[in-house]
Amino acid sequence: MDSEFDRDTAVTLREPGVYDAELSAGWTIIQAVNGGYLLALLGRALGEALPHPDPFTISAHYLTPSVPGPAVIRTETVRAGRTLSTGQASLFQYAEDGTEVERIRVLASYGDLDALPDDVRTTAKPPAIPPREHCLGPSDGPAPIPGSSAITERLDIKLDPTTLGWAVGAPSGKGEMRGWFGLADGREPDPLSLLLTVDALPPTSFELGLTGWTPTVELTTHIRCRPAPGPLRVSITTRNLAGGFLEEDAEVWDSADRLVAQSRQLARAPRG
Amino acid sequence: MDSEFDRDTAVTLREPGVYDAELSAGWTIIQAVNGGYLLALLGRALGEALPHPDPFTISAHYLTPSVPGPAVIRTETVRAGRTLSTGQASLFQYAEDGTEVERIRVLASYGDLDALPDDVRTTAKPPAIPPREHCLGPSDGPAPIPGSSAITERLDIKLDPTTLGWAVGAPSGKGEMRGWFGLADGREPDPLSLLLTVDALPPTSFELGLTGWTPTVELTTHIRCRPAPGPLRVSITTRNLAGGFLEEDAEVWDSADRLVAQSRQLARAPRG
């Protein structure tokens, strides 16, 4: 528990199925609490409430913007099966009069990644990302994430220069964002931190020439394998920007060349 | 209401937010009720319960196998916003002693597809599927769907011959399934029928040389555009079969070459 991520996603049992939490200001982008960090908090609470430890698939619908400060997570065991359990969880914060305001609701099916057979028959290939030393982070020049964002200090992200055109005023026009991902304090990846990883890179809309906010409506993540220690590679793709919405498909690969997470989100496109 | 699909997905208000339904035996594969048909039923109930008409993103977790017969759908309005509403719904059936058994639970965000702007900036291209007259359906030779399946009579599916190797004992080894989709009685597509379309083709696992059941754990569908009248093209891809699970990514294109739906499901891989 000496990592920032574990400390800031800790939950405290209040009563069966109900957990108190504190949303840290350390995981904000501009003023918004990062959606992946929130998902990891909900994922941790469900892992404690359900009979199985690992999120296999978790679908989150984002309702109202979260702010740093106290929160409560209410979970429900929907079904407890032999190899999979399904649960629901909501994260609430408090209005000035003390009433609970729901921020996010998730449905998830949990299992035990360590109990899965070793078979892998995949045609997916790791993304073509240059070696880490040829990729760029906030300390390598003009800050690639605009504004003051506490989260950048907690992440060790190095972006593929071919997806960084937006940072120098020359977006590629392609809906792609790729890079290396780690936690700044060296905490190794696990299924919970993968829930952060899938929503931690700058939005693909930057490379489409759009600036401004890209709020997530819904984000579903499949955790397919316990990640090996070491840096992760993340590739995000948007193929369809239409009608004011876009999808972001993320893949996360571990140091052993395993596809460890797949996610898709529906987000509102920025107006810019 | 003279289409089989509309008749068989009808819901009747029992009390506010609660709808009675009858699962038709006409949408079964072997003995199982098709998951896309069930999703369309839940989608219809939520469209009646929420202030917005169209599913923008709907995430379904499948809990227990549904059977033809009576069901009840219980909905909850989670949040009603200006442009989006979020709702939850569960479909229950009845045990012998009359208690309700939950079959599926969904979380969904609804909006109004007709209120979206016309902007389209997409790099997605329609799938390369031969003309419909060069594709093959159940009446064109050896039945491509094994076993007796009532649903095949209600669908007008013509599969790309390059994804039909499995039907003649020579699966391609690629996790791909493509074809033309329509309803057999000519009922035109709409957002609700798209929820059926994304889960209506044979599983990609057949082309991976695996026979047997591929039960859905979770299925999330984004409806991106109201489909134009006419036949739909569906392309399904599996890239990662590992640890006994696989994902199926589906795209649905309409006759106007618009990407109208994107879905992804996590399913258990067959053992065969």
TrEMBL record, chains A, B:
This is Thioesterase family protein. InterPro entries: ACOT8-like_C, Acyl-CoA_hotdog, HotDog_dom_sf, Sec_Metab_Biosynth-Assoc, TesB_ACOT8-like_N. It comes from the Bacteria. Residues 145-267 form the Acyl-CoA thioesterase-like C-terminal domain. It comes from Streptomyces ficellus. Residues 24-109 form the Acyl-CoA thioesterase-like N-terminal HotDog domain.
